[in-house]
Design a protein that fits this description.
235 residues; single chain; binds zinc ion; Rossmann fold; alpha/beta
C-alpha cells in the first residue's frame, strides 16, 4: 500500500502521525511526506530564507529515519491560501506518488490557519486527482484515495474515531520529532514548551484512551460515495 501524509509545516507530521507512518513503513508499505510551507516563521532571530533552509533539512532528516519519500512545496509560512495554483500542485504531487491513503491535518478542528488549509486543500482535491480533464503533467489517479484527518495540537477540539497503537514505534516518532532541533530550541526559549515532551504526552494520552501505552488518533470525513469495505486501512 502507498500512504501519503500532508503537513503545513516541517514538524506537524512528526507530532501527529509519525508513529503511524513508522508502523506502515515497518510493515513494508511505501510512505511519503509532503510539506506545504517553508516554515519561514519558525525563528525569532534567523531570516526567513535561512530558517526555511534549516527546517527543510530537519524535515528531510526526519523523513529519512523511516525511509519516506519527501516533497517540499515551499509556500510562505503563515500565508497558505486556497488557489487554483495550490490545488493543481497538490493534485500533481498526489498523482506522482499515487497513494491509496492520505493523512492530513484537520480542516475543521485545528487552530492554525495553515493547518486547516492543508486539510482543506487535500479534501478539495482528493476527487479531482482522478479527473482526466484536469491536466497537471502526470496521468490522473485510477482510484480516489481514502483521507483521514490527524490529531490537533494538544488534541484540542479533536474527537478521535480511530486509534493506531504506536507503542512499538514511539522511539522512532520521538527521534523524528527531535530532528527539528531549531523548533525545540525556539519553543523552549519562547514558550517554555518542549516539543518532544508534548509529542510524548499526547501519544501517551491517546494510548490511555485506546487501551495501550502509546497511540495516535484519527478521524475520517464522510463523503459520497462511501467505501466502507476499506475502513481498515489504518495499520
Ligand atoms: Zn504546524
Amino acid at each position: 500500500m502507498r500512504i501519503m501524509a500532508f503537513e503545513a509545516h516541517p514538524d506537524d507530521i512528526e507530532h501527529f502521525c509519525a508513529g503511524t507512518l513508522a508502523k506502515y513503513a515497518a510493515q513494508g508499505h511505501q510512505v511519503a511526506i509532503v510539506c506545504l510551507t517553508d516554515g519561514g516563521c519558525g525563528s525569532p532571530t534567523l531570516p526567513k530564507e535561512e530558517i526555511a533552509r534549516v527546517r527543510e533539512q530537519e524535515a528531510r532528516n526526519a523523513a529519512a529515519i523511516i525511509g519516506a519519500e519527501f516533497f517540499w512545496m515551499g509556500y510562505p509560512d503563515g500565508f497558505l491560501f486556497s488557489s487554483e495554483e495550490l490545488r493543481l500542485r497538490v493534485i500533481e504531487v498526489i498523482r506522482q506518488f499515487r497513494p491509496h491513503l492520505i493523512l492530513t491535518l484537520d480542516k475543521d478542528n485545528d487552530y492554525h490557519p495553515d493547518h486547516t488549509m492543508a486539510g482543506q486543500v487535500v479534501w478539495d482535491t482528493h476527487v479531482l486527482m482522478t479527473v482526466p480533464n484536469i491536466k497537471t503533467g502526470t496521468e490522473p489517479c485510477d482510484v480516489i484515495p481514502d483521507v483521514y484527518f490527524m490529531d490537533t495540537p494538544a488534541g484540542i477540539n479533536f474527537t478521535p474515531e480511530f486509534y493506531v497503537d504506536i507503542t512499538d514505534h514511539i522511539d522512532t516518532k520521538l527521534a523524528m520529532v527531535r530532528c527539528h532541533a531549531s523548533q525545540e530550541t525556539w519553543c523552549m526559549d519562547q514558550y517554555g514548551v518542549s516539543l518532544a515532551d508534548n509529542a510524548q504526552v499526547q501519544s501517551r494520552f491517546r494510548g490511555y484512551q485506546a487501551g495501550c501505552k502509546y497511540a495516535e488518533a484519527f478521524r475520517k470525513p464522510r463523503f459520497f460515495p462511501q467505501k466502507t469495505a476499506r475502513e481498515g486501512l489504518l495499520p
